[in-house]
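Thread title: Can someone regenerate the structure for this chain?

I was given the following input by a collaborator and told the matching C-alpha cells would be attached. They weren't. Posting the sequence so someone can regenerate them.
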Amino acid sequence: MVTDPLAERFEADRPHLRAVAYRMLGSLADADDAVQEAWIRLQRSDVDGVANLTGWLTTVVGRVCLDMLRSRTSRREDQVPDPVIVADEGADPEQEAVLADSVGLALLVVLDTLSPAERVAFVLHDLFGVPFDEVGRLVGRSTDAAKMLASRARRRVRGETPAPDPGRHREIVDAFLAASRD
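Best answer:
Regenerated them for you:
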C-alpha cells in the first residue's frame, strides 16, 4: 500500500487546524469546511519550498476563516456556536456539559462582537502564537496594524470598550442570558 506523505502530514496537523478554525468560526461544521478547503488548496499548491508546513496550513485556514467571517457579516448571518465538551475525570458529566455550554457560548458571544479582522488577529496571535507579521499579511494590514487589531480585540474581550452598536449589544446579552437559563 502506497501512502501519500503530504496527506499523512496534513492528517497530523488536522486537529490543530480544526482547533484554529473552530475558535475563529464557533461552529464545528464550519471549522471542518475550512480545514477541507485548506486540504484542497494544499493539493493545488507547490509546497516543496515551504519550510514550515504547519505554519503555511495555519495561514491558509486563517484566510479561509476570514473569508467565511466576512461572508457572514455581509449576509448578516447569526452564528449559533457549537459547544465543545472536554471530559474531566471524576467530574459529573452533567456539570461538565453545562459548564462547557456556558463557557463556550460566552466566549463565542464575546468574539462575535469583534470585527472579522480583530477576531482573526486575536485568535491567531493570542491563542495560537502566530507572529504579528504573519497575521498582518493574512488580514491585509501592516504588522503594527495587526498588533492594534489584537490590542483592540483584547480590550473588547476584557470589556474595556463598549460594543459599537447598543442594540446589537443588547441582543447579545439577551442571547447569553437565555442560553445560560436553558
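The radius of gyration is 18 Å.
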